[in-house]
Amino acid sequence: MTSIPEPECLVILDAANVRRKMIEYRIQTETFAETFSTPDFNMANMLHTDAEWLLLHPLFDAAGNAQPATERLPQRPEPLGNDPAAKHITLYNMKRTIADTAQAHMHAFKALILKSHGPDIASETADHARGHLDVSISEIHNYVMRTYGTLDSDDILFFQQDIRRWDIEAPFNSNIARMRRNFAALADIHMFQSDVERVAALIAATAHIPSISGIVHNYRTNNPTIAEQSFNSLAAYIQVQIPVATAQARANATLAATAHSAALEKTNATLCADLAAARAEIAALTLGTAHSTVAKTATTRAPLPAPKTGKPSAAEKALWTPGRIYCWKHGFFKHTGTQCLSLKKSPDWKRDALDPGPINGEYGSRAGE
User: Fold this and answer.
1) pLDDT digits (tens, 9 = 90+) for 144-165
2) What is the pTM of this model?
3) DSSP 88-135
4) Half-sphere exposure of 284 (CA within 13 A, CB side)
């Protein structure tokens, strides 16, 4: 006996998707039937209802004479009589092999159909005592088609929304194939059957995709009348033009990035030049002020400035010069603490201070800053 095919069951129905998956389920079931068929028997015969089978194979011929019922699959031949001829034995063995193969394929076909129904829906056709042993394939299959083959309002709304959805991450052909499946699902209720509706749906689905919307605009410009527009031709036109539009978009993005980078470099150079000029100007002003102060001090002895107290600011600290002559009481004013008579009784750390602080948490005079 030949090996039994083992096709993969990709569509499994459940209560949430059973109506929306009817077309895929039917296609999968017909594919299974073709897989399990051989030149000796057709497994698709098992899917017909009894009424359909009787219509295809009536019990009476054209003359009205009764004839035996036609079996859907080959049956085992009757046992041979005594001392059969060799050719009869060969023919008997051949028929028995075909019948046994047909039965094995039928059971595998039935198991796959039940698997595709899912546990919940499959239980609806099972007998409480013997499960599906006595339930034919046609009963199991046509129960699902009869019970769940008609869309309800929620399913129609789902397909309408899915038709106008575009998955940017998916390839172009995958989106088009999904739209075609949705069109087929709504065919029984005569929705989206005209190219006018389908073209409008494709335009609405791709309206937010800049590259595709531009291609659609060109297509409608080249085909101004509705009679010239069709879903298939628009889809084919978009597929051909997408690589060109994508390459142009990438080129534009590269040019924009280059221009932006050049503008940033120019701005940075300008800012650096302005900063250098400002620093030079500040240095010149500071040097001029120092020279002016030295000259004025050499000619005129200025009175002691009012001492500053409290914690200095960062700007004030920046004016301090390490090692500059400093007096804790009088600040930066031509003598140190060790030379000041008023500090002779003060602690050594005040007399020896090099800058106004902080020393031991205290700040000295900041006069002359």
Assistant:
1) 999 998 888 888 999 999 999 9
2) 0.56
3) HHHHHHHHHHHHHHHHHHHHHHHHHHHHHHHHHHHHTT-BTTTBTTT-
4) 6
